[in-house]
Batch of 2 targets.
Target 1
Amino acid sequence: QKEVEQDPGPLSVPEGAIVSLNCTYSNSAFQYFMWYRQYSRKGPELLMYTYSSGNKEDGRFTAQVDKSSKYISLFIRDSQPSDSATYLCAYKETSGSRLTFGEGTQLTVNP
Amino acid sequence: EAQVTQNPRYLITVTGKKLTVTCSQNMNHEYMSWYRQDPGLGLRQIYYSMNVEVTDKGDVPEGYKVSRKEKRNFPLILESPSPNQTSLYFCASSRVGGSEQFFGPGTRLTVL
């Protein structure tokens, strides 16, 4: 079983749609949960970060973590063409610096 | 400006010709890491370094070498590149224990 599974996409939605991106993980040692955004021809950048179960909001973005089900999601409200990118979930254990990444989901928001 | 730089950005080479991809960060980070990104496989860690002169293997280290002689620099060395090393390579840095890794712009390598 892979440590991290991410919905592969690609995903294409109209502008204004609500987008749901999902990942599951199997390693119980993962305690920090992140979403990185990667624009074409760029390196990934941290979008959201959380360490507890529940929801965390930042503008149009909501990160949801369910540790009991080992499931994380990223919701994008009122999606914009500028949200078109690849989104990668990432995990970290309590100690150490190593991140484990999902495969990424490519999102296109059409005007 | 805080950043991670990589050079070159694009490289086409032939099998067996040694090459080095440079990585430098100006944030005084202790932790640095190299990844390769391939379609359907995501980001896979090649090597990482916790500090100067401290390096260790990641998930896919075969065919690669690294060195960390200075805190800011972490070059990736391919002594004898092969076509299966054709990929997009990223260098990243962070504080030790930090969750935010800062990535360079990437190096697209093609080995013929």
Target 2
Amino acid sequence: KAGVTQTPRYLIKTRGQQVTLSCSPISGHRSVSWYQQTPGQGLQFLFEYFSETQRNKGNFPGRFSGRQFSNSRSEMNVSTLELGDSALYLCASSSGQPPSSGANVLTFGAGSRLTVL
Amino acid sequence: SQKIEQNSEALNIQEGKTATLTCNYTNYSPAYLQWYRQDPGRGPVFLLLIRENEKEKRKERLKVTFDTTLKQSLFHITASQPADSATYLCALDSSGGSYIPTFGRGTSLIVHP
């Protein structure tokens, strides 16, 4: 089956602009999580969506937002870009079942590499 | 505060040797620990999962141990190959039942032919 697809793969923006990244999960997966990866901080959790609802949220400012559509596809948006937002943004999908059903094993996309100038 | 620590220095080994990577954690009581592999410019790929009540898990040339007393997991690759060169990340399910994996920063493994 097809993997997790992220678009665009690369983009360059300037400070103050906004950006929207897209993620198509594996068919049948209802949970989509977003992570930011930088050399200094590693993988940092942004938020998770399940059935169009934000279910978990990391410790990022309100400039970072997301949404999930009825077909489980997800978008994340970053407004008023700062230089420090330059990173690899990773989307991961999973079945999203409750903890009692087992561990949350993630399937990641290839990421969207954002450079802010 | 909660911490997941992986050796930030790259591990260099010769082809055919066993690579051992370490993941230490503090202030966690994880139910699961996962290991992922990440190649440059790509997303992490799931390798192995071990539960808190399991001491060891194997998959082909991979072996993971989990010591909840020491708060440590070891990840072994036997008969390593240059193709095993990558960054390896450990991830713990978060405390409080949110089951969102929290990742270590990863250790780079370089296998020399």
